[in-house]
Amino acid sequence: MQILKKTKMNALKVARNLGPLGVVEILRKKKVTGRGGAGFPVAKKWKFAMDTDSDVKYLICNADEGEPGTFKDKFIMLKNPKTMIEGIIIAAETIGVKNVYFYLRGEYLNLREGLEKEIKSMLKKSESDASIEIVMGAGAYICGEETAIIKSIEGYRGQPYCKPPFPPKAGLWEKPTVVNNVETFVHIAQSLYFDDYNTNLRLFSISGCVKKPGIYEALSGESLTKVISKAKPTNKPKAIYFGCFGGCKPYKEMKLTAKNICGDDCVHGAATLIITDDKTSAVDMAYIISKFFTYESCGKCTPCREGNIQVLLLLKKLRAGEATKEDYELLKELSLHVQETSLCGLGQTSTKHITTGIKYFESEFTDLIKEDGTGKEE
User: Fold this and answer.
1) Peptide bond before 237: cis, by omega within 30 degrees of 0?
2) Structure letter (DSSP) for residue 311
């Protein structure tokens, strides 16, 4: 990750020289996309807000990093906060925002004091008239979803709401609102200043069965083997989990591109790689992840609230050797139902680890089915 010079704010100078439309055009040409998981084009999102007539507009920095196995934003906030803040100031001035909210994950409370000092210093040096207020997260994974963040900042329970209208048209207090991820703001500043900026440069969070878990920088399209070798797998990898919400794939040589990964029903997301080996059961992984989603469901929609509980109970039954073939078929059917009918991205991806786990490691599930209705043989 390229770190801009700490005091000169060269990217901000470029942005001010270009003007709002010039900034958006550069972001469009360089194909800068969001790094929170969805990969939506930044220029397109900003233009929606810029073109919406309103006396007030808002900007939110999503620092509510709650995805298990993902810790790239924490790394940025610790190691490169100045470039991130510079990107935030550029965004505020480009979109026409006076009030910025920095939504910081509740478990990252220890980062708040340092961030406040950096924000105060950067705002003073930039002579920007925007304000940046840190809002502590409510301790809920669902608040990483942009509409749930909006409700949380407004003082309500952090729950998503139906779209449209989308936040750039009507978001925080029904005003145009842009929500971008921590890493996205770093890329905004870098793309404006560096001529050799490469939008394919990613920060990979690697953990699991490895000796050196951590953040590794590589290009999207890099060899999977090459990327994870830096973390030194403890044994031969069996599967790769793309965070909890991204599903899993058997380990094989492939290029780490969204097309390669998403083409098999997985989600590239926030470039998270959790490595498992032959000692790790796909059923156990499914159970652990399902416990997480059952706990983190906000409870607003029935498919996610009730469906994930039933999925967890079926997995518990399967692991105990008490599940029948009918239970197994119900698990498959219910997992798809939860994905297809939930309101937001949490529910829509909450059983992807099961559907992909069954797709690639089905024998690990079927071997646990109770035989002949009499119980699993000893």
Assistant:
1) no
2) H
Spatial CA neighbour of 38 closest among 351, 275, 348? 348
Backbone dihedral region of 93: left (phi > 0), alpha (psi from -120 to 50 degrees) or beta? alpha
- Say whether 103 sits in a helix, a strand or coil: strand
Regarding whether 102 and 46 lie in a shared domain, the answer is yes
- Residue bearing tokens 């207090």: 173
Encode pLDDT of 138-181 as tens digits.
889 999 999 999 999 999 999 999 889 999 999 999 999 999 99
In residues, how long is the chain? 378
Do 120 and 136 belong together in one domain? Answer: yes
Cβ count within 10 A of residue 212: 11
CATH at residue 217: 3.10.20.600
User: What one-letter code names the amino acid at 120?
Assistant: K
- pLDDT for 3 equals 56
| 28 occurs within a structural domain | yes
Contact between 289 and 353 under an 8 Å Cβ cutoff? The reply is yes
DSSP helix, strand, coil percent of the chain (3-state; round to 5): 50, 15, 35
Flag whether 172 is in a domain.
yes
Q: Looking at this protein, which amino acid is placed at residue 54?
A: S
Strands (E), the chain: 58-63, 99-104, 131-136, 177-181, 201-208, 214-219, 237-241, 248-250, 272-277
CA 358, distance to chain mean position in Å, is: 24
Over the stretch 98-123, which tens digit does the pLDDT of each residue have?
999 999 999 999 999 999 999 999 99
Do 205 and 262 belong together in one domain? yes
Which residue segment(s) compose the domain that 168 sits in? 10-193
pLDDT at 4 over 70: no
Torsion of CA 226, 238, 250, 331, to 10 degrees: -150
